[in-house]
Write a sequence for this structure.
C-alpha cells in the first residue's frame, strides 16, 4: 500500500484523516499523498468522501483527527487566517461550474487571486491578460461571465486557478458540466498548463476518461482509500 | 471474433500469401496474441476448397515459393453477409470478469477485491491508450478509441457492480449462493 507514504517533498499529504458530519462519518482513516509535479486522479462513488477529502486538503474543512501537510508544513495548528493565506498562495481551484464571480468581467475574475495577494492593479491586469491568451480567451477579457459559454467560463476558471502560479491545483469535477468535446479541451488545457508550470494537480472525478489523463489514479470507498496495487 | 472471416476480409483488401496475411492480421487485430501460422494456411485451404478464394500465382523469393490468394465473387458474398449481420448483443454478456465476481459472491469471497484489481488494470490500460492517442496515426486511432470506449463501458459496469454489492443483502452471501 503506497497511499500513506509521505515525504517532505510532497505537495500535499493527508494521514489517517477522520471527519464526521454529525453521526455520519465522511472520512474514516483517509491517507493520500500528492507528489510534487504529479497529476493524481481521485475517484470513487458518490458519498465515498472524495470532495470532503479535497476540502480537508485545502484547509476549508478541519478533520476531526489526522494530519494534513501542505508543501511539507503541518496545518493543524494554523489559525483560520493563516490557512486562508496558505491556500491563497499555494493553491488554485477549478470547480465543476467554474464558480466565477458574476459581478466581475472575465478578466477581473482571472486577476482576482493576484489582487488578493497584493499584486499591483497594473501587474494583475497584465498577468490576467497573458493567462487569458494562454487559455484561448484573449479577446474575452471584457465580457461578463453571463456572456460566455460554459466551455469558455471553465477555461476562465482554469486561468484563474493558475494565474498566481500556485504549486497545487485542486480540481473538483472540472469537466462535469461540459460536453465531451469541451470537457476534453478544458482538461487538456488545465493539465498542459499545470504541467508546464510544474504544479501538482489533484483531480476529483467520477469519469474514467478524465482519470486516464492522470499520472496515477487513487480510488476512495467508504471514506478511505482503496489500497493501490503494488505489482 | 471470426478469424476465418477476418482473413477473408483481409484478402478482399488485396491478394496476399499466407505469411503476409498472418502479419496483417497480427498487426491490425491481434498484436498481443499472434495467430498460429497453421490456422492461416488451414483457412486458405478451406477458402480454396469452398470457392471463396483462388490461387492467382506464386511469388518466388529466397525461400520456398509463396502461393498468392485472391478473394472470389462467392468469397465477397460470404464476407459481406458476415460483415453486415449485426453481432448478438448477448455475446458481450459472458465475460470472465462477470464470472469471477459471481463466483466470489456465490462462494462468500471478497468480490470488491476482484473489482478493485480489474479497475486498476483497466485504468492502467486506459492511461496508456489516452497517452498514445495524441500521436497515433489515423488508422490506429480508430482501434484505439474503440478499445477506450469498451474499457470505459467495463469500468462503468465495475462501478455499478461495486455499488450494487455494497447494498445491504447483496453480498457476500445474500441470495447469490
Amino acid at each position: 500500500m503506497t497511499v500513506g507514504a509521505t515525504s517532505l517533498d510532497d505537495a500535499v499529504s493527508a494521514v489517517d484523516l477522520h471527519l464526521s458530519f454529525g453521526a455520519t462519518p465522511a472520512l474514516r482513516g483517509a491517507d493520500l499523498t500528492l507528489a510534487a509535479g504529479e497529476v493524481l486522479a481521485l475517484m470513487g462513488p458518490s458519498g465515498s468522501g472524495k470532495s470532503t477529502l479535497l476540502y480537508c486538503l485545502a484547509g476549508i474543512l478541519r478533520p476531526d483527527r489526522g494530519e494534513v501537510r501542505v508543501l511539507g508544513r503541518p496545518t493543524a495548528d494554523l489559525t483560520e487566517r493563516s490557512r486562508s493565506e496558505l491556500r491563497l498562495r499555494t493553491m488554485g481551484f477549478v470547480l465543476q461550474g467554474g464558480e466565477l464571480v458574476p459581478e466581475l468581467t472575465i478578466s477581473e475574475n482571472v486577476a482576482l487571486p493576484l489582487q488578493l495577494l497584493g499584486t499591483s492593479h497594473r501587474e494583475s491586469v497584465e498577468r490576467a491578460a497573458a493567462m487569458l491568451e494562454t487559455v484561448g480567451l484573449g479577446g474575452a477579457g471584457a465580457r461578463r461571465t453571463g456572456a460566455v459559454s460554459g466551455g469558455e467560463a471553465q477555461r476562465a476558471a482554469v486561468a484563474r486557478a493558475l494565474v498566481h502560479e500556485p504549486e497545487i491545483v485542486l480540481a473538483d469535477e472540472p469537466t462535469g458540466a461540459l460536453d465531451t468535446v469541451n470537457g476534453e479541451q478544458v482538461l487538456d488545457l488545465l493539465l498542459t498548463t499545470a504541467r508546464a508550470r510544474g504544479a501538482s494537480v489533484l483531480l476529483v472525478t467520477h469519469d474514467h476518461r478524465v482519470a486516464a489523463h492522470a499520472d496515477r489514479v487513487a480510488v476512495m470507498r467508504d471514506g478511505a482509500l482503496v489500497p493501490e496495487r503494488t505489482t | 471474433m471470426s478469424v476465418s472471416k477476418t482473413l477473408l476480409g483481409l484478402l478482399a483488401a488485396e491478394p496476399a500469401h499466407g505469411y503476409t496475411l498472418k502479419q496483417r492480421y497480427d498487426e491490425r487485430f491481434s498484436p498481443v496474441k499472434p495467430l498460429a501460422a497453421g490456422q492461416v494456411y488451414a483457412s486458405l485451404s478451406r477458402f480454396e476448397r469452398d470457392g471463396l478464394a483462388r490461387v492467382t500465382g506464386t511469388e518466388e523469393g529466397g525461400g520456398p515459393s509463396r502461393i498468392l490468394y485472391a478473394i472470389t465473387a462467392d468469397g465477397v458474398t460470404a464476407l459481406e453477409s458476415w460483415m453486415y449481420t449485426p453481432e448478438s448483443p448477448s455475446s458481450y454478456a459472458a465475460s470472465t470478469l462477470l464470472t469471477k465476481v459471481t463466483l466470489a459472491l456465490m462462494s462468500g469471497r471478497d468480490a470488491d477485491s476482484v473489482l478493485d484489481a480489474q479497475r486498476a488494470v483497466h485504468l492502467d490500460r486506459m492511461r496508456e491508450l489516452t497517452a498514445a492517442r495524441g500521436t497515433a496515426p489515423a488508422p490506429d486511432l480508430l482501434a484505439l478509441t474503440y478499445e477506450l470506449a469498451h474499457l470505459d463501458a467495463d469500468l462503468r459496469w465495475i462501478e455499478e457492480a461495486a455499488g450494487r454489492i455494497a447494498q445491504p443483502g447483496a453480498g457476500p452471501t445474500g441470495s447469490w449462493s
Notes: The first strand of chain A starts at residue 12 and ends at 21.
